[in-house]
Amino acid sequence: MGSLFRSEEMALCQLFLQSEAAYACVSELGELGLVQFRDLNPDVNAFQRKFVNEVRRCDEMERKLRYLEKEIKKDGIPMLDTGESPEAPQPREMIDLEATFEKLENELREVNQNAEALKRNFLELTELKHILRKTQVFFDESVPTVYKSSAPSHSSNKYRRLLQMADNQNEDEQAQLLGEEAVRASQPGQNLKLGFVAGVILRERLPPFERMLWRACRGNVFLRQAMIETPLEDPTNGDQVHKSVFIIFFQGDQLKTRVKKICEGFRATLYPCPEAPADRREMAMGVMTRIEDLNTVLGQTQDHRHRVLVAAAKNLKNWFVKVRKIKAIYHTLNLFNLDVTQKCLIAECWVPLLDFETIQLALRRGTERSGSSVPPILNRMQTFENPPTYNRTNKFTKAFQALIDAYGVASYREMNPAPYTIITFPFLFAVMFGDLGHGAIMALFGLWMIRKEKGLAAQKTDNEIWNIFFGGRYIIFLMGVFSMYTGLIYNDIFSKSLNIFGSHWQMSYNKSTVMENKYLQLSPKEDYEGTPYPFGMDPIWQVAGSNKIIFHNAYKMKISIIFGVIHMVFGVVMSWHNHTYFRNRISMIYEFIPQLVFLLLLFFYMVLLMFIKWIKFAATNPKPYSEACAPSILITFIDMVLFNKPKEPVKDCEVYMFFGQHFVQVLFVLLALCCIPIMLLAKPMLIMQARKLANVQPIAGASSDAETGGVSNGGPHGGGGPHEEEEEMSEIFIHQSIHTIEYVLGSVSHTASYLRLWALSLAHAQLAEVLWTMVLSIGLKQEGWFGGVILTCVFAFWAILTVGILVLMEGLSAFLHTLRLHWVEFQSKFYKGQGYAFQPFSFDAIIENGSAATEVE
């Protein structure tokens, strides 16, 4: 139980391992997860360490596994995850693993390359098929040949007949392209042919491609294009792309060269297209036959690839675990030193003292596994270095410890607030969130996550919000349970009350009076039975429309201050445990005692006045202890601190609540004021006096606790203290001044800060009442079958608002305020949080972090 309230006692040990047994021993320690190794080669480059080649081999294996994982995920193949963690393989097994991964990678890359080549061939054949189909339409719409006349005088007539045979839409283009050549033709029987190229281009590149052709060829080309309706698959990345078929008519080799360069610049693919229709039909038939053959080959290739990936998916998780364990072992071995003989590895590590024998057993198992005859040696060392902080946790306490560590990791062997937070955190949350219905929703959600935690944890989702909820499932459950309790105390369930025991107030008015008057007042003298409601608030306050908020305000404001002062006093008492454990007598006498006295004489006295007022004053009591004579606690406290004379009381009432109150209040204020200079000056003066007596400037080591006013990490209970020079006297005075001013002013501000318990509780109750009055009550007032439909819709809307606003948003608000009360108001009284966490060499943590990094990638 000691480790629950303080961190584990740690020891710095020196470990000697035979080189042959080092791998197996470190493997056993990784499975155990209780040793934190120190780097004994901080000045050695990572590439110059002994096992750097093995680490590189592991990196290469991890790269191959990531490649396999990417291909498996691309095909949507499920990877088998048994949840088991195989042991780290022996070093000689690395060769087999490397060979297996190399074979799989090469086979998969070869299959991918073949598939990519086949897909590229398939794409080319598909594009050629579309070209042959579309160009047939182009050739049917235009005439590519021009016949020249035998005499120049008849050239214009034959040219007109050529234009008449062409398509009406292309008359201008063909006249511009053929006119001058036809006019210059002079030899009889000679015909002129147009050259053409056909190809495929991306659809989005077609408009600039057309403009470039027009400008570069000065309008002496004729372009026809048609879209390919079905998208084509890019063999490089598998994306679907939209393309268009084009055919360009031109005359002359110069234009042909220019057109081909432009096509190359726009990455258009050109394909051969025969001029004769019969040749085109024959080519199309051949293309269709080859496409069918390619489809068959592609299917077989994909089946083979799928079989390879399915076989790899069965072992991929285990392979990842094995490789990461090997890499972690060699990375840890790189932290060790080699002795002179090169046959022994030397390491330094932090170990918990309670697990010393367990670690030795693990080392013995590793030695036996390796077959070594030389046993490992684990020696405890003396050190002045601060040990790491190690708080043992389980699945229940882990979330609460995380809340504390988020503020700061505890100093070594400092009091751990986590065990107390298990109770105080959900309780203070419930004071703000108190509602039986809302608490039940939260508790059921937490209970569901607890009951299903194994299945939910196995899912390993990367949803950050869900992981936060699931990690804090026990906190959510306890907050819900405590909220149900405070909801019963407030007698509040969805802004309504439960009349379990029957109200202890009686109605003295007749029926007609009640029906005719909107507001009626019940007198506690006549209408109250004299005994309180057995548990929580009397349900009659729920229908008290005029003074319900006034009554709840007074009640919740007072209990907020009461809980706040008790919480702060408990925090100061926790500092006493720190001072006694570290034997810091100066801080005990001149810090703890004045702080406690200051807090008790002022603020705890105010709490006592609240109880005295509740006990002595009542409506049924005669004067001077009737309700009319009850003084205001706030005014009384202000008059007490400012030494003001109280105002004259009402007739037949007394000024003070008990005999000698004025004297007691003056004495308490004076004693509290006397505590301030003690906290401010006593400790620095004693340190200065001790330095003069020792005639040493400054004192090192021994008086570190007294001088810094903090928590020592040394002493008989620890693993060593800080061995460094102490602060100058001026810095000590400044530090103590800041600490004193912060405590004195903080006592006032922190007490007022606990009023957030009252404010959020009131806001939560009022929001619940607003939702009931303005939403659900509308549906409840409807009648008939139509009213049932309206009520169903209204209830659904009310339930969504209740869960979304009152449970989630208000719950988050109350959670953050509770967290602030613990971090600032409570932990500031005793908790330094200046340590560093114990980070043992653990395979479980390494594999978990590696899996998370892989999922993010």
Observed structural traits:
857 residues; alpha+beta; Alpha-Beta Plaits; five-stranded antiparallel sheet; four-stranded antiparallel sheet
What would you say this structure looks like, in words?
This protein is an alpha+beta fold and 857 residues long. It has a domain of 184 residues: Alpha-Beta Plaits, CATH 3.30.70.3450. The protein contains 27 helices and 13 strands. The strands form four sheets. Strands 1, 2, 11, 12 and 13 form a five-stranded antiparallel β-sheet that branches. A hairpin with a 5-residue loop joins strand 11 and strand 12. Helix 10 crosses helix 27 and helix 13 runs antiparallel to helix 26. It is extended. The chain starts with a helix and ends with a helix. 29% of the residues are buried. About 9% of the residues have low confidence. Keywords: Coiled coil, Hydrogen ion transport, Ion transport, Membrane, Transmembrane, Transmembrane helix, Transport. Essential component of the vacuolar proton pump (V-ATPase), a multimeric enzyme that catalyzes the translocation of protons across the membranes. Required for assembly and activity of the V-ATPase. This is V-type proton ATPase subunit a. One of its GO terms (molecular function) is proton-transporting ATPase activity, rotational mechanism. It holds the Pfam family V_ATPase_I.
Separate helix tally: 27
The helix content is 55-70%
- The total beta strand count reads 13
| Main sheet makeup | 5 strands, antiparallel
Mean pLDDT: 85
Question: In angstroms, what separates the terminal alpha carbons?
Answer: 42 Å
Characterize the overall form: extended
CATH topology of the domain at 114-297: Alpha-Beta Plaits
CA gyration radius, whole angstroms: 44 Å
Which spans have pLDDT < 50 for at least 5 consecutive residues?
Answer: 143-191, 699-724
Determine the structural class based on helices, strands and strand pairing: alpha+beta
| Percent range for β-strand residues | 5-15%
Tell me what the CATH architecture of the domain at 114-297 is: 2-Layer Sandwich
CATH level-1 class of the domain at 114-297: Alpha Beta
